[in-house]
Fold LacI family transcriptional regulator.
Amino acid sequence: MSTIRDVGKMAGVSIATVSRVINKSGYVKQETEKTILQAMQALNYEPDPIARSLAGKSTRTIALVVPDILNPFFPEIAKAVEKEASRLGYTVILCNTDNSLDKEERYFQVFEQKRIDGVILASYTLGAVQIKKWQKKIPIVVIDNRFPQHPTIVSIISHNRTGAHLVVNHLLEQGCRKIAHICGPMGVYSAKERYMGYEDICKDQDWFSPHLIVQGDFQIKESYQATIGLFKRHPDVDGIFAGNDIMAVGALKALVAMGMSVPDEVKLVGFDGISIPLVVPELTTVAQPIGEMGALAMHHLVELIHKRPLASHVQVLDVRLIIKESSTTRASKEFVT
Amino acid sequence: MSTIRDVGKMAGVSIATVSRVINKSGYVKQETEKTILQAMQALNYEPDPIARSLAGKSTRTIALVVPDILNPFFPEIAKAVEKEASRLGYTVILCNTDNSLDKEERYFQVFEQKRIDGVILASYTLGAVQIKKWQKKIPIVVIDNRFPQHPTIVSIISHNRTGAHLVVNHLLEQGCRKIAHICGPMGVYSAKERYMGYEDICKDQDWFSPHLIVQGDFQIKESYQATIGLFKRHPDVDGIFAGNDIMAVGALKALVAMGMSVPDEVKLVGFDGISIPLVVPELTTVAQPIGEMGALAMHHLVELIHKRPLASHVQVLDVRLIIKESSTTRASKEFVT
DNA sequence: ATGAAAGCGCTAACAG
DNA sequence: CTGTTAGCGCTTTCAT
C-alpha cells in the first residue's frame, strides 16, 4: 500500500498539496492537480481511512440500532439504510438491542468511543431524555418513533393514525360489525397512534366496547394469547386490526387454532407492510414506505453530521392500504401463472 | 477525553508504561500498575480505538456479508454473530450483497481499505477462487456453504444431506407416495447436498422420476412458479420437500392458489428452521442450529485473526427435524392457552 | 498556489 | 521493570 508521501514524491509536490486534492480543499493549480491525480492512479493509491479518522474527525461509519432484527420490519429498514449508506460512502454497524435499555446505553458508549459519525435509532425503550443526552455528543435520527414533546429529536415516522383509519374503514366496508384491536405497547408512539386511529372511528359504533382492545407487545406470542383471550370474551368479533404484521400472524395462528376461518369468519389486517409474504392467506396490511424511511433516515443523518439545517425535524410519511386475502371475501379460486 | 499522556502524567510514569498496562504486555511492577489503573479511573480514560488501530493493527471490527437480509435465515445469523461479536469486543458491519458478485468484490475492497479484521461470509455467488484470493489478505469464515475441493476455506455448515434424509423418511412415514423436491441453485453446496439427500432415498422408489425435481432459487417467487409447473405435470404429487423455508412458503402459496389443502392433500416440508413462524399451517422443517452457526463462525474467525490453528477447517453441525402441521395428518383441533 | 511542520493518540522497538 | 523515541498516514495551520 502506497501512502500520501509516495504520491507526493512521485508528483514532485508536498503531502499537503496531495491532501488538498484528496479533500478537494484549498487551492491547487489545475496542472499540479492533474500530475497528482496521475501519480495516485499509477501508485494505486487509496487514502487510509483510519489515518484520516485520527487526523481529521469523521469515521464515515454510522450505527443502526434496532430492537429486534428478527422482526422482518427491521431487516427491511436495515437493507435500505445499508444501501443508502453504501451509496454515500458510509459503513453501517449493526446493533441489536433486544429491547434492552442496558444494551442501548452500552452501545452508545461504544459509539462515542469509536467516534461513530451518527446513529439511526429504532428503539421503543430509550426515552426522550436519554436520546437528548446522547444527541449532544452524536447525531441521531430516530426511526419509527417520535417524541412530540421533544421536537428537537429528529425522527422519521409514517402516518400511523391515518393508516389505522384506512384499516378500520376497510374492515367496515367489508361488512365487519365488531372489530377488535390488538395494540402495541402504549408507551410507543406509533402503537398509540394506531390505537387512537382505531378508536377515532370505532368509538361511535354501536357495537364498540373498550374490551375489544387487547394488549400486545409487537410480538407473535403475546398476540396469540391476546387473541385467544379476546375470543373467549367476544366470540362474535368478525374483524381484527393488529398493531403490526407480526402480531397479525399471532392472531391468525390463534384463529386457526380456534377453528375460525380467515377471512370468512374473521377478517384480519396488520400494519407495516413487510414485504415477505408471511402467511396464507396473505395479509392485508398498511404499508409503511419502509425503504423510503430507511433512505430518508440516512439522508437526514448525513445532513446532521454535516451540521446542515434540516427543513423539518420530524418527517411524517404516507402509508397505503394493501388489500390481500385476509380481509376480503374469498374470491373464486384462481391462480396466477 | 483524556489521553494516554494525561494518565502518564497523573501516575508519574511514561506513556510506554501506561500502554503496557492497557495491553497487558510486558512487565509492569504491581504497584506502578495500580497507580496507573487509579489514574485511568480518575480521568475516566478510555484508549482511543482509532489511534490504536493506526499505530497497531487490529480494528476490532468484522464484516458480516449476507446475500439477502430479507430472508429470515440471515437476520438469525446476524443476531447470533452480532451477539457473540459484541461479547468479544468486536463490532459488526453489515453488508447486503443481493447476490451480486460485483457488490461482494466492492465490499472486500472496502474491507481491505478499512482494515477490517475478518469477514463472515454467506455467499452463493462468490467462487472458491475469489475467496482464496481474498483470504490471503483477510481472514474469512464461510457460513452455510463449503467448497470440498478447497479444504483451506474455513466453513461452518450443517448436515444438509442427513437433513434431507430426515425429511424424506418423515414424508414416507406420513404416507406420501410421490414426493417432489424444489431444489435450490445447484451451484450451491448446501442446495446440492439437500438434493442428493432427497435422491439417495427416492431414486429407488417405484414412483420416482427425475421430473419430480424442480429448480428453485431459494426465493419465494420462483418456488411458487415451480410448484405450479410441477403440479401441471404431476397432479398426484402428495409430498413436497422444499430446499429452504422460504421456498416452502412459495410452494404453500401455490398449493393454496391451486386449491389444494396442506397437509391433507399435499404434505410440505422446508429446510432451515427459521424461528419466525412463517405460515399457517406451521411448517415442518429441518432446523439448522442457526444461532450456533453464527456464534461458531465468530469464534473461528477470532481464532483465524489471532492466527491460532483451527482444529478443523470445516465444521459440520447437526440438524433436527421439527415436525409441525404442514406434514402431519391434521389432528383434532385443539388450541393452547 | 504550495510547503514545512506540528500534531491526532497510540504502539513498539530499543535502551537503559 | 521503565523511559525515550520513532513512527502509523493523514489533516491543518502558518508561512512563503
Summary: Chain B has three domains: 4-47, 61-158+290-317, 160-288+320-336.
